Structure formats: C-alpha cells, structure tokens
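tool_log.txt
---
The assistant was asked to compare two proteins side by side. It first ran the structure predictor on the initial sequence, then on the second. Raw inputs and outputs are pasted verbatim so the downstream comparison step can read them without reformatting.
(1)
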Amino acid sequence: MTVNNYYDVTKWKNGDPYEDIGRVINSIIEDIKSRQTESDINQGGKPGSVIYIPSGDYHLRTQVTIDISYLKIMGSGHGFVSSSIRYNLPEAEWTNLHEIWPGGSRILVDLSPEADDRESAGAAFYVERNGNPRISSVEFENFCIDGLHFIDDGSGIENPENTYVNRKTGIYIASAQDSFRITGMGFVYLEHGVTIYHADALSIHDSFIAECGNCIELRGWGQASKITDNLMGAGYKGYSIFAQNFGGLLVASNNIFPRGASSVYFDNVARSTVTGNRFHSFYPGMLVFEGNCSENMVSSNHFLRDNEPWSLMLECDNGLDDLYGLLCIRGDNNSIIANHISEAVSVSTIKPSGEKPVIIRVVSGRGNYISGNHIVATTAQRETSDSCFYAQVDALTNTEQRTALAVITVLVEKDSIQNIVLDSGTDEQVILNKTVNAFRAIPGI
C-alpha cells in the first residue's frame, strides 16, 4: 500500500496557493489529520508530512494554523533581498534594478492586523497545541516570509518604511514544544521575525533574518536550545536575539548586523553560552543581561560599535547614552572572557558630551569574572553616504589615521561586589571598589 505524505502546494486540490497559500496549507493539514487518526498502528500511526513550496510568489491572506507534530514545510530558496535599500531609493530608479522584490519560495504576508488585536493575529504561521505530549518536530526550511511594508507609527520618521512596525510576525509558536527546527529561512520586513514561547531543544540555524523589527524572541521560558550560524539584524527599536527565563541556550557563530537596539538581550537567563559570534552595532547596549542572569559565559566574540554611516537613518537610535555600556551586566557568576571589543566613534557623537564611553558595565550582582578582554577604542571621523552598502563597507574597513579614544573599559557599580576583573584595562581605565572586588590591571607601556 502506498501512502503519500508529501504535498506540493501548487498541485493541491483546494484553493489557489498564489492567491492565498494560507488557505491551501490549512486544507492540507486538515487532510493529514483526517488520514492520520490513529496514534498507535504497528508502533506508528501519525508520521506527519512534508509540504513543499516551489519557487514563486505566494500571497498569504489566511493565517496558517499548525497543531500537528512531525510537519515539515519546505521551499526551494530563502529569497532574501534588501527591501530597506529599495524603499529608500527614488521609485523612479526601481526600473533600473535587477530585482525589486525578494524571491525564492516567497510568502507575501497580506494580513492586516489591527492595533487592538492579539499579538499573534499578524503571524503568517501560528503554532499551538496543548496537552501531552508537547507538539514536536515541526520544521520550517528554505523559504522566505516577507512582511512587505512597514507603516507610519506616529514617531515622525520621514519614510514610514523605516519604522520597523507593521504588527506582522513570520512564525509565532504559542505553546510548549520540543525539537522544532527553523533552518535556511529568510525573514524580511516583519515587526517580529520569530516569536517562540516555552522552547525546548529548539534549533534556529543558518537563516537570514534581517530588516525586521525584532529577529528572534524566545519568550516565557525554555531550555537546551541553540541559535547558530545565522545572519541577522533587527531594527533600532527591537532585539536581534532576545531570551527570557532560559537555561542552556547556545548562541554561537552568528553574524549580527546593526541596527538592533541590542544584539543580545537576556532577561533572567542562566547557564547559557554566547561564543564565537561577530556583533556589530551603532549604539550602546549591544549585549544586555537584565534581571538575575547567572552563570552565563560570553567568550571569544567580536564586538564592534561604530557610528551609523547611512544618511537616511541618522535620526534613529535606541535611546541609550554611552554611559550605559556596550555590554551591560546584571547578575551573578557570569564569565566575560577573551572577547575582542572595538569602539570606533566620532567624539562629536558621544553622549553625554565630554564623557568617557563605558565598554563593560557591571550594574549589580556578585562573582562575575571578567578576564582577558582586548578592548580597542579609537576616534573615527564620521562619514555618511546615501548608499547603505558602500557606506558600511567603507566604515568597517577603514582603520587608518585613528587616535586613541579615552574610555572606561570596565565599570563595576557599587551594588556589585566580589567580582574579579583581570587584564581587561589599565589601572586608569577600570573603575571599581578594590576593597570588595579583585582587580589586576594591564601593565602600562
């Protein structure tokens, strides 16, 4: 007997996937559920299915609702292209562009959530199932979710396409789940790329999540998950990576672009690892530990903070000043070890004017270990351009003719005691109470 658990959305009997792929996928899921009704047939019974999305543009006007395990939705290309660059070009120039819209297997989110709707109303994919066991092994692979446009949010931004607000989400997972995978995906122009509650053994890997208000949000609580090998960057109001009440999270080998308000924001996260990442930001608060973050390791990362070079975005920032700290730590027994931290900014952009920027700031907690961090602080002449790509490349690669910038490499506030700070700044660069904290300075040259 042949059982077909593979579906092609372009060949399904109900609906037109180009007009409303959401309706088509929901119909396919209902078919799977109608066929896989028994939970135990010869030690099997509900193997799930694969739903395939060929390359093409598919409007989504109906939210996809997933409540079955072992479902894989896959496409033939993540299709990312910068919508921000396009929207900040005069529309008369669009005819000269090789491509105008994202491509690959692309889902166009045509939902219109209102301000008073529940937060999940604008999600292209909504996953929820209660009871035991938890929903498991749902996979999203190799297609693009495009939020299309941002909207005027009343903030006064001249171009509404730069607000990062539209109340749309790519994937929203509302219930506890196990072993979900998001791999090789593209997310663009969504206020929330991926929002997940109560994750266990989650893998978000090798995806391109950019020009979204927020990229990855792990909410509620969770454990034993990983965010690896992704390229991503949030808007100036949101987070590239946010995690709440999490244990055992691995954040590794990601390349995080500006302009996120924070590259990594942990709230009550414990025993997790941030390692081998490249972080780039235009603002302080690149890495924030809020609440009681304890026994986390931040090691072997490259942090770069410089000035916004794109003239169209000069009016935007995350609202923090340079005394906040590039890395702002609250919590106990965290290790900040062997990171390379570069600050290359124009003196005229430092806020408050005349102050020394703070690189690592320990606000509260005890037993934190800060050791062997190489901090390079230099002045840079602020140069701006109307070209986003060329302006950023020039800013990144220009390291000549710079002078040393006076900074506070480590600031341990009075509410934080019994910390150890080694080889992360000279005696003049580190501020702490040496009667309640241990300190070893880098020797002067």
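(2)
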Amino acid sequence: MARLTPITSKNQVAAKDQAIVDSIVASRGALQGPFTMFLHSPELAGRLAHLGAYVRFEGSLDMRVRVLAAMTVARELEAVYVWGAQAGGARRLGVPESTITAIRENHSRGIPSEDAQIVEFTRQLMRKHRVDEPTVKALIGRFGNDGFIQLTGAIGYYSMLAMTVNACELEAAPGAEVLKV
C-alpha cells in the first residue's frame, strides 16, 4: 500500500493547483502512477509532467530505445511500478521476450546488439555513475550528440520516477507484470 494517499482527483489539491492537475490529465489521459504521488507537491508534478511529455512523447529518440532504458532503470532501482508500466509497452514495441527476461534477470544473454548497447549504457550509468569511452563513442555515433543527451535525460527522468515510487511504496498497477525484488 502506498505511503501517501494517492491524488486521483483535482478536488484533492488546492484550487490554485487544479490547473496543474488538468494539464497532467490532458497530456496523460488520467491521474495515475507516480503522478498520484508527485501531486503532493503540485509545482514539482507540473514541471515533471512537462519534462516527461518531452522525454516520453516528443523527443526524437526511438520509442524502443526509451522503453529499454526505462526498463533497465526500473530493474536497477527495483521499481516495481515502473517495471510494470514499461514491460507491456516493450512487448507492444516488439522487444523480444529474451531481452525483457535478460533485463529482469540482470544478465545480457539473448539481447540483440543494438538493444544491448542501450541496456549496457544504462547499467553503467546506474551502477558506476560513469560510462566508458567506447560506449559513449558508439552511442554518439549511433544517435548524435542530441540523441545521446536525450537518452541520458530519459535515464534521469525514469530514475526520478523510480525513486519516487520506491519511496512511496507504489505497487504495480492492476494487471501489470510484477517485478520480483
């Protein structure tokens, strides 16, 4: 059970903050997941929703790359909610089950090389807080400077979501795949 009461209606926030709730609902379709926690700090929620809209929907980075990074962050930080939110999306994007299993089980066997590049970069950044030069060069060669920074930013965004759902003990959504931690 979540440590904070989930905010699922704009009536749960002060009148001055209700436009933030409306904006989040407009961009995401509903109040759910981490935003039910972030809305305990409406200004932060609004700013994060704006960033998240770019990271998730508007940036030029391929959606498959984004979901691989998000799943790897979820696994590294043992974020049950984030894993559940991303696993279904990965399957819809055609990510092989062997890749999903490898990320879930913390190994690299069976991951196609282009996907492995994203998983390895994310793991290095999460585990060592640095990335080796060959990995950086390969990613810049593949995505350019802009894409490299977008990928790094996506990892940071999903890390913030993961830390928040972990601090608040937000469980996976109903019907979502549950990460065993």
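---
observation on (2): Residues 63-167 form one domain. The chain has two domains: 10-58, 63-167.
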